[in-house]
Amino acid sequence: MHKLVLALATAMCLLAVPAQGQETAAKPVAEVLAQDLREEVLRFEATVKDMFGRQETKPVPVTVYRPPGDGPFPLFVFNHGRAVEAKRAQQGRYRPESVARYLVAKGFVVLVPNRIGYWETYGSFDPEFSGCRSIEPMSIAASDQVLATVAFARSLPYVNTSRWLVGGVSVGGLTSVATVGRAPEGLLGGINFSGGTGGNPDNNPGKPCNPSATTQYWGSIAKNAKVPMVWLYWENDKFWGSSNPKAWHQAWREGGAQAQFAGFDAVGDDGHGGIALDMDHWLPVVDQFLQSLGFDAPAIVQAAPPSGFAAITDLAAVPVNAAGKAAYPKFLEMALPRAFAVSNKGGFGYARGDYAAGRALGNCQRYGNPCKLYAVGEDVVYKP
User: Fold this and answer.
1) Would you state the pLDDT for residue 90?
2) What is the pLDDT of residue 10?
3) Which one-letter DSSP state was computed for residue 200?
4) What Å distances lie between residue 271 and 100, 158, 188, 278, CA to CA?
5) Domain limits of the chain?
6) What is the pTM for the complete model shown?
7) Sheet strands side by side (includes 73-79)
8) Rounded average pLDDT over 205-221
């Protein structure tokens, strides 16, 4: 899909401590894994076909996020989008950390496959190329890898594959719909964030090529679907526009499948990025959906009321190390909404904008130390 998909990956995996300087172009930045989510990258092999019938077997890197403890935990397979050809070579490992952090708090092991044709396997074999014709071959290839991910998960002792969900963004949302349409064993439901294909926001904003192919295919596989879904789209989606997703949803429902359509107001310059830009609004919808399936653990970060611990401008009161003392004045210069979190070891993390409290807490605790919110907006909420 285009530069926005790359921006989503960046927006959803912020580091715990914002950089204090700039790296030179020649010096690579070391990847920091989210220790509190036990993040790791595993690999398995999968075999897929492209629309021309060519078949290849390639390694699929899969990022794992999981709760503390031995499990086994229910599984959530989350799927990435697709950059346009000129940008796909730059599509690195997909790390939807903010989404994964919420799902792990709900009790899931989250597996995020980097499908064949992306990142390490980018090259001449592209099983998701459709040429804006039938979307069936790409849908099968992508959903085959979801099923291969579930099969691989059976080898992981901390995963319970008898209870799993599928979700994804953009072409990853299309992948989720395709997977639900195959009614695999153990699947309980699916989540579609801004799903579709064929969008070109730069040249034809809101007018994807051949949207009727999506309408036709989703309508044809809906009769096979056995589990409920929730579909989330934003009004100013420059990939699909506002009307195409509604037509796709209508075809899915008329075909016999279950799906709640959650439409959101315009957000940012392009609502296609709503998964990263509008967590405050979609989280309650997804949380209600998961609760209906029996996953009722509280997972949305809520800010506590003001504690009176200190004035928000009192730097001496902030229980952080020297780096935190240097960062806190910068936090105070940020526009609202904003949040600052502190760890029990003097570390910190902060964020501004959408879901600031949740992201600040996540940015702080990703190094593995317990964290608490210190300030939210104009108020100190910290209690020692």
Assistant:
1) 82
2) 34
3) B
4) 21, 36, 28, 9
5) 3-292, 315-380
6) 0.91
7) 40-49, 55-65, 109-113, 73-79, 159-169, 187-193, 229-234, 259-264
8) 96
